[in-house]
Amino acid sequence: MSLSTNPDIPHDGQASVSRPINSAAPLPRLLHSLGDESKSVLSLMANADHIFTGGQGQDIAVWDRHKFTLKTSLRGHTGSILALEHAEEKGWLFSASGDSTVRVWSTVTFLPVYILNPYLETGAGDLFSLAWNPAMQIIYIGCQNTSLQWQGFCKLQLDRHVEEQWGSGTSTPTRKVHKFFDSYPQYTHRPADLQANNFSLSSSISQGAFVGTNALINISAANVIDSAHFGYIYCMALLPSTREGTGYLAQKPAQNYYLVTGSGDETVKIWHCNPSGLNMMHSFDCQHGAVLSIVASGETIYAGCQDGHVKVLDFETRTLVRSIIVQENVDVLSLSIMQSDLYTCSANGHIHRWSSSFDCTASWEAHDGIVLSSVVSCSSDRKSFCLITGANDGFVKVWAITPEAKDNLSQLHETSALISDSDVTQGDTMTYALSKFVSIPSVSSDPNHREDCRQAAIWLKKGLNQLGAQSTLLPTREAGSPLVLGTFHGTEGKHPKPRILFYGHYDVISAPPDGWDTDPFAVTGRNGYLYGRGVTDNKGPIMAVACAAAELLQDRALGIDLVFLIEGEEETGSVGFVDAIKEHKHLIGNIDAILLSNSTWISEHHPCITYGLRGVVHSTVEITSGVPDLHSGVEGGAAPEPMFDMIRLLGTLMDGEGKVAIPNFYNPVRHQTEAEKQLYDVLSNVTQTPGSVLSSRWSEPSLTVHDIDVSGPRNSTVIPGKVTAKVSLRIVPDQDLQTIAQSLVNHLRGTFDKSQSPNQLSVSIDRTADWWLGNLDGPWFKALKAAVHDEWNVEPLLIREGGSIPSIPYLEKEFGCPALHLPLGQSTDQAHLPNERISLDNLSRGKSVIKRFLSIATNFHAPTE
C-alpha cells in the first residue's frame, strides 16, 4: 500500500487527504467467510437474521446470519444480480439484474412478491443500482441506458398502475425487446416462477402483493427520466434531510428526501423526491473518472471514483469539501459507513477505514480479488455491528467492527438535536448549548480541523433552527468553511419590521494544551466562570444572542427580524467572506442595523460599548540575492547581504521619535475632539491607565515589524540568500485604506531603489481591513446604550479598540446601515490565550441586554421601499 504522509495535498484547488494510518487503532476481526470461489459477489444486503448475496449466477443466496449456513436461494432472475436493497418496514428485498428486471421478495417467506419491468421504449439494459424511499414507498432504479426510473408501492400508486396499464383487459402486456440491451430470452406471458408458486388472493394479500397477472408491474413512461446522466447510473443513495421545527423543544421535524446518484459521466446528482417524481437540484462534477459508489451520512455525501479518490461533498452548501486519496488509480467500488467511520473498498482487495476527520485509522487486505460490494449491518438488539464484504474471489466475509472511541465531533455528527426536554430540565439552555458548541474544535488556522469547522457550521444551523430560526448554510470558497445564515422572524405588525443583522464567527484560535488547567474543548464551570476555547470569542456571545431571540419569540414578543450571519474564517482573515456576501445578498435581504459582540470590556466590573476599531494593512517584504545561501567564512565581506539591506530598509519606516516615517502618513488622521478627550479622562480613572496611552492604542495609527525570517539552516556561519519580514500598519479615521497600503509599497520600493543594492526587493499586501467608527448620536446606538443601562443600572463606558474586525466596516458599507458593537466579556477573559473564560453573570445579563435592545428596536419602523 502506498499512502502519502502529507496531510493536505493540493489537488484541483481542493484539499486532498491521504493520511498515515493510526497504527494504534485495532483492525476489524474476521468472524466468518461464506461463498463459492467460482462466483463473484456483485451485491450484498443484510438484516438482523440474514445475509443476502447476489452474483454472476442467477440466484440470490440467503445465509443464516447466526449460524453462517446457507438457508435458501431465491430463484427467478436470468442474469447477474447487480444490486440488492432492503425495505425493512415491509419485510421486502429488492433485486436488480442484468436481465433488466427488478424482483421483490419477502424476507419472511422468501417468496416472490412482485416483478418490475422497467419502461423499455428505448431499452433499460442492465439495472445497476437501487434505492428505497421508506416514507414515500418508492423504489428508484439506476439503468444502463442512463435513465432513472421508479415505482411506488403505496395503495394509491398501485391502484393507479393497475388502472393505467391493465384497464379492463385480461392479457399480460407484451414486454418490448431492445435489440442492443436485451440478449436473453423474452417472455410474453405470466412468468413461470409466479405460476409455479400458484399465487392466490388469500396467500398474497398479507404480503402486500397483487396476485396472478397483477404481480407483474410494468413501469410507466411517467416514472422515467431519460438521460438522467450521460453515463451508466452505477450507484445511488437516499439522503433524508430534516427541517427542524421552530421554537424551544419543537416536536415534529419535517423530513425531506433526496436521491443521490453517481454515474460513469463523472458526476453526482442530487434529486428532490416527491410522490409524483424527481426534480434535479444540483450536479457535482467529480473529475476523477466514473463514480462507482456512493454513501451518505448526515449532511455529507461520499462518492467513490474510478481513480482511487473519494469525493466528500457537502449537501447543504452544494460544495466539494475535499478529496480523500485512498490509493491512486485503484477504483473505489464500494463504500459503507457506520456512525462516523467510513469504509472504502478498493479493486485491489484492500479496505480502508477513515475517521470523521478523514484520518485513515485502519487498512487491511480483505480479499484476494476485487472488492465489489459491502454493507454495514447491526444485530437485532443494535448492540453489535458487522461489515460484510463481497469480492470477485467468490467470498463473502463478515467482519466485527466497533466505532472508534467517540470524540466530540463524532457524537455531534450522530445527533442533530441541540436541546431536548431532559436537557432543559437539567440546566440552562444557553450554557448547555454552549458546552456542545465549544466541544467542536473549529480551529480555522489548522487544515486538520477543516472538517470540524464544517461540522460546527452544521451544528449551529441545526441549533438555530431548533431555537426558532429558519437557517441554512451558504458556501464561501472552494474548500472554505460555510457561512451560517439564520433568521428569527418577528411578529407582523402595522408597520414594516426592522431587520437587524447579528454578525459573529464560529471558528476559534488554536488551543495547545500547555497552559490550560482543563480540556480547552470541554466547557468547565469554576467559581462563576465557564472555561473553554471560544466561550468568550465568539461562541458564548453567539449563543447568548440566539437564546435572547428564542425567548422573545417564544413569548411572542419579538417585533423585529433578527438575521444571524456567522462565518467560519474570521480568525484567518475572513477569506471569501466578501465574495460570498455579494453572491448571496438577496438571501440576506435588507438590513437596518448590524450588531456584533466580538470583544471584551476594558475592566472587570463596568459594562462597555465599543464604538471604534482601527484598520490594518498586513504586508510581506522580501529581499533576495538571487544566489544560494553562502558561507560567511568564505564570502563574508565580499557578498552584498540581503539581511543588511532589510535592516536598513525597515529602519526607514520609523523616525527618531517613534513616528511612522512614510510621507503624508499622518495628514488625514482625524484630530481628537473635546468630547473624546473627556471620554479618555473617564476611562483613565477607571483603568488607572493614562488617557494618552489609551489614545495611542485606539485612535492613533502605528507600525509593527512582526517577524524577520531567513532562508537556510539559520546558524551563525550562513549568509542567507533570502530575508523576509512581516510588517503591519494600523490605521484610524480618516486614513484611506488603499492609499495607505500603496504608500507603504511606494516608500519601501523608492527607498530600496535609492540604495542601489544588487539584491532584489518584493513587497506584497497580504490582507487589509478598514477602520470603523460608530455613530454615537444615532437612534440605534442610543437604544443599545439604554438597554445596557437598564440591565446594569450604570452608564456604559464608551470604548474603542486597537484591533480590527474586517467584516464590520465592509458590512456597514454593503448594507448601508450603522453597526453596533456590544462586548460581553471582561478584560480578564483570556481570549486567544490559555484558560479562556467568560463570566456566567456576564453571559446571562448579556442575554438580557440583547432582549431589552431588541424590544426597544421593535418601535423603530423599517423604511418602506
UniProtKB/TrEMBL annotation:
Q: Where are the WD repeats?
A: 74-106
Protein origin, superkingdom: Eukaryota
Q: Write one Pfam family the protein is assigned to.
A: Peptidase_M20
Keyword list, A-Z? Hydrolase, Metal-binding, Protease, Repeat, WD repeat
Q: Which GO terms describe its biological process?
A: glutathione catabolic process; proteolysis
Q: Cross-referenced SUPFAM superfamilies, in alphabetical order?
A: WD40 repeat-like, Zn-dependent exopeptidases
Q: Where is the Peptidase M20 dimerisation domain?
A: 625-749
Q: What segment(s) does the record annotate as region Disordered?
A: 1-20
Q: Name one GO molecular function term.
A: metal ion binding
Give TM regions.
none
The record's section on PANTHER family has: BETA-ALA-HIS DIPEPTIDASE, DI- AND TRIPEPTIDASE DUG2-RELATED
Similarity comment: family membership = Belongs to the peptidase M20A family.
The protein's name is Peptidase M20 dimerisation domain-containing protein
Species of origin: Suillus plorans
Q: Show the taxonomic lineage.
A: Eukaryota, Fungi, Dikarya, Basidiomycota, Agaricomycotina
